[in-house]
Structures are given as C-alpha cells and as structure tokens.
Amino acid sequence: MTGRVPSLDIVSSRPSSGGDSLAATSSQVARAWESFATGEDIEQGVRPEILASWYRCRDQYEVDPTLHVAPDAPGYNDHRLDNDVIFAKLGGLGALAGREIEFDGGVVAVTDGAGRVLGSWGDPSARKRAESANMAPWSSWSEQCTGTNGMGTSFEISGPVTVTGPEHWCEGFHQWACAGISIRDVVTGLPVAAINISRWNTPMSERVPEWLTQAAASVEQEIYRRALSESRSVLTEFNAEAAQDSAAVMAIDRGGNVVAANHAAASLLRLTNDSPVVAGVIEPANRWQPDIPEFVEVVRWAISRAVERPHWSGYARLAVCPDENPIPVTLRPIVDANHVVGMFCAFGLQEGEHYENTAQSAAISLPRRVIGIRSERLVLLAPSEIRYAEADRNIVWLGTDRGRIQAATRGLDNVEKLLTPHGFRRVHRRFVANLRRVAELERGVKGELVLITDPRSHELVPVSRRHAPEIRRLFGL
C-alpha cells in the first residue's frame, strides 16, 4: 500500500520543554498573533507563509480568531466519483500511519479537496481531544472555515506545511502542532485531498514533512496513471471525431490543455504542422495551453455543466486569432465510464448553451494590500508600487519600486484578479502590467509591442499579438 513511504516517527528529537504549552514556548509568535488579530499590520516575527495565511484568514475569509471548534462541512458531495480510489489509497496510508503513532499522542487525518475530514486514526486519547475541537469526519478544516492549519493551509501552499502552536489563526488550536500536505490533480493542478498529522501540546519530529512528501508522491502516482488513461480515451475519441469532420477541431483535457488538434485547428491557432498536438500528446506535462483570453474559465464552466449532463454542449465567443474578431467555439464533453475526461472544441460552430462572463460583475474579496515574500519577511505592497507581475510556472514575481518580490498568492490568474481593479491588465500569457506605470511604448523588430515601465533600467514587458489590440485601444493608439 505505501510503496516507498518510510515509517512515520513523530517524536521530536529536541529536548523537552518541561511540559510547557506550545503557546508558552512560542511567545514571540503569540504576541504577534495578539497584535494581528486585533487589526494591526505586521511584517516580521512570523514565518512568511504563516503571515500570508493570517492575512487571508483575517482580511479575505474573515475567520473568527476566537474559534475553538471547527464548523461542520456542507452536506453536498463535491468530489469526483473517480477520486474514490484516491481516497481509498490515502485512507490506507492514514490507517497504517495511525497504527504507528498509536501511543505517541498523534492523530492522522485525511480530507477531500474542500478540506472536509473523511477519516482519522492514531492515539485514542489524542483523537478524543481532537474530536472535542471537531477534528473528526464531516467537519471542515479549509482555511476559509477554520483558519490557518495544516490541512487547510496545504491547499494554499505547494509542498508540506507545518503550523505550530499560536501560528494557528484560531485561538482554540494554539496548543496543537500539525503538519499537512495537499495531493493535487496533475491535470488541473487543483487539490484532490490532504493528509495531516497533529500532536497535542508537543512539537513533532522534523522528519514529518519528509514523510508527508513521500506519502503524497505515492498517492499522486495513482493520479498520474489515471491522467494517462484519460488522455488515451480523449485521443481515441478525437481520432474518431476528426476523421468525420474537416472543420477546425481539437481535444482538451479537464484543465484546458490541448491533447490533440487537426491540421485546420493547428493552422487557426498558428501552430506548425510538426507541433506535438497534431500527432496527439499523452504525457500531461507536454500538453499545450492556448493563449486565448478566458479560455480556461470557459473550460471550467463547460465541465461543470457537463458533469451531470453527458450530452450537453455549449459555446463561447472567443478571440482565438490575434487582431481578429471573436469567433464561436463549441465545447462538447468527452465521457469515459460516466466521467468527463475532456472536451471537444469545434471552432466556428455555435451550438448549445451560451457562455456569459459574469466575472467582472462578481464581488471579489480583496486584501488590504498586495502581499509579497522576501527573505524571511512579508512585504505589504500598495498596488501603485507594482509595475508588473510575471509568472514562473505557478510562482509569481512582482516588479516593484522595492525590487523584485515574490507574490504570496500563487498563480498569475489569481494575482490578476487582485490587481485588475487597480489598473492592471493581462498583456501576455506570462505578464500582467500596471498600465498606469507604463512610461514608454516600443515596437520590436517584427512589429510586436513592448511596454517600458521603468525607463531608467529600460525594464521591458512584452505584449503578445493577441493582447496588443486591446492595449493599443486602452492607450488610444
């Protein structure tokens, strides 16, 4: 069941603190928490990933810091049925780990991708104490519900996360030490589940994050195998469809990445005939995501509609070709064993339900300031200080008046939502620019557009051909 996952040892090798509580032994963090919970802004004294979580809990999610009991989870079932095999494997790991730490004061818990506890194992007395805080099946431990904690915060941070004593946002959990890690879908990048280890009033071994990393990797192997199986189904269905259709069509996975495209679609998207998607791509890491505005949002909408309706179809008008008017793109689900595994995209076809973008009118919870991380400090930035945001995979770097700073929020799409109300616009697949800070415009050797945000250092932000017409319009060019 566990593969290469080693035995779990949660007992710390550090000297005993003589029975003092975690809150008492973390006095600096406790003082910082007291100040922050009463509304003060702080920049140091707390680990950056924890302080970023506190900001989310206080300013975005508005979690009550005096909470002592986790709320019950919503009653709906929000996980894919084909994730049941993932939960079974993860539950097996949790049960085995629970037996290993049965007499060491630890509790192992497993959640779904929404932070809802599915099962817990471990020391009976520790489990009883945990259950008094509702760390038990069908309670919710997402950050939105229960503040900073190993399970919920792991959905916001890549890799294992530890939360010790008063690092927890809610005061009722200040005498717990916990460590958690999320298990993510390799296709969509979204969390599927989490596994967490907690210990009452006692620190845990420094080896626990390593164990969590290997446990998550062993479960993600199963997710990867499923992704390969899904892509084969998508490619088989696409080949059958494309053989009967001379129009521009392509097939995408659940994350909006292209698995296959016929020559007409490749030409429309301005891909070369030797592009891997023309032959079909099985490996998830090698797929291509079109640089089409709103495309990912449309795919999410289509999949949510098709989950309960396998014969559903819908369309959106998208700016598929740069410098040209939007065209209709119809999406239809690809279903395998009653699960949506991908989508057909037919260009120029208008069929089914119409997509309406409500994102601009939806209320967006904004933090008081944009939060960055530099060294061991959190940096609080006014939007006016930021010239551009640049994506490096899921990490976002901010070009600011105080230097290059990593954004605490992961994902360029998420950072874009925070910055758009302050005059920022997406100008490239990898860049969001503050149009109020653009000092000069420059044309490249091939006619491409470049924004100069800092003439002193000749700081250049590229504009893709797809976004150039909108940027010219906004500048009145």
UniProtKB/TrEMBL annotation:
Residue span(s) of domain HTH LytTR-type: 371-477
InterPro entries cross-referenced by the UniProt entry: GAF-like_dom_sf, LytR-like, LytTR_DNA-bd_dom
Biased composition (Polar residues): 13-23
Annotated stretches, region: Disordered: 1-23
Pfam families, alphabetized: LytTR
Example of a GO MF term: phosphorelay response regulator activity
Gene3D superfamilies: 3.30.450.40, LytTr DNA-binding domain
PANTHER family recorded: STAGE 0 SPORULATION PROTEIN A HOMOLOG, TRANSCRIPTIONAL REGULATOR-RELATED
Protein name from the UniProt record: PAS domain-containing protein
Lineage: Bacteria, Bacillati, Actinomycetota, Actinomycetes, Actinopolysporales
